[in-house]
Amino acid sequence: MTDSTTRTAVAAVALVAAAAVAAAVGYLLFVWLPDDSLARLLGVLLTLAAVAAALKFAGSTLSSRFADYTVAEVAVEGPITRDGSGGGVPPSPGSPGADDVIDQIERADDDPNAEALLVKLNTPGGQIVPSEDIRLAAERFDGPTIGYATDTCASGGYAIAVGCDELWAREGSVVGSIGVIGSRPNVHELAERLGVSYEQFTAGEYKDAGLPLKEVSPDERAYLQGIVDDYYDQFVAQVAEGRDMDEAAVRDTEARVFLGTEAYDRGLVDGLGDREAVLDRVEERIGTDAVVEEFTPQRGLMTRLRGGASAVAYALGAGAASRLAGGESGSGVDVRFRR
User: Can you tell me the distance from the alpha carbon of 235 to that of 50, in angstroms, rounded to the nearest whole number?
Assistant: First the structure.
């Protein structure tokens, strides 16, 4: 009998034993001791609940104790947002949000079986602070952390990558876009033609800077550009530190994207290869076989149901709403890492 078969058999026996003990204790407390039929019915239900709780607890404990994986994999895919919505009107259902990704990384860090962390990156970028939070979580992982780009690792995705010990890419991967973009819709001329006037009561000279119903003044434009420039300076400094590059070399990329081969030549990635090559590198780092376990968001039933309802609502309403909104929406300036 192989070690894997033995572990599976032991885990199965342990689960059955846990369920049996919970059922026996529950029956004794909730069914056998009470006298009336209503209490007995309630006792049966409570017994079933106790069995389910025992199975869940035993399952989570055993899965950690008898797991045979050595590497945790976390994916960052699609636009990076705090809650995982793709943005727009209505909000589009997207991949796991930054908070979910951070939770996955932290669970991997607490898992004694996860000797290394793989961060799969296929994203054009997104919101600045959520990207930064994922990067910091990757940096905190206690063990080798290797990012690998599949199709695209740009902007906010690259900001996350610099938090990894190494970054790998395919030869045809799109990598880079070390820059920041700030955008604002301006509809004040349309509002004037429609007879709509802008009147707002604010305290503070720049409180309404960037609102779409008013023309931006030179001072406001300089103020908003200064915010974007500050974010850019931070981004450049993080890349220079994380990739051990000179800041001038980072700025010389001029926020362009590069195919994997040129990104490698510029020092933006550490290696080129497919997933198997990346796993070979992980094995070199940890000194044992790289057996990967994908960590996914822990979501309850109601969360999954809400996600399904959101997907249906988006499918029904996205077409009309996108025409009404004319693309990106919202007041003020949208500043983010984005390719």
Answer: 51
Please say if 56 is a catalytic residue: no
- d(Cα 106, Cα 137) in Å, to the nearest integer? 7
Whether the model clears a pTM of 0.85, i.e. scores above it, the answer is no
Catalytic residue among 60, 207, 217, 331: 207
Q: Which residues pair with 183 in a beta bridge?
A: 334
Sheet holding 181-183: strands in order across? 125-127, 334-338, 181-183
Active-site residue, selected from the candidate residues 92, 155, 173, 177: 155
Q: Which two tokens stand for residue 159?
A: 């900001």
Domains of the chain: 3-65 (no CATH), 71-182+255-338 (3.90.226.10)
Task: Judge whether residue 301 has pLDDT over 80.
Answer: no
CB within 8 A of 160, min separation 6: which ones? 76, 80, 119, 121, 131, 134, 135, 138, 147
Q: Is 207 a catalytic residue?
A: yes
Q: What percent of the chain has pLDDT over 90?
A: 49
Q: Say whether the peptide bond before residue 90 is cis (omega within 30 degrees of 0).
A: yes
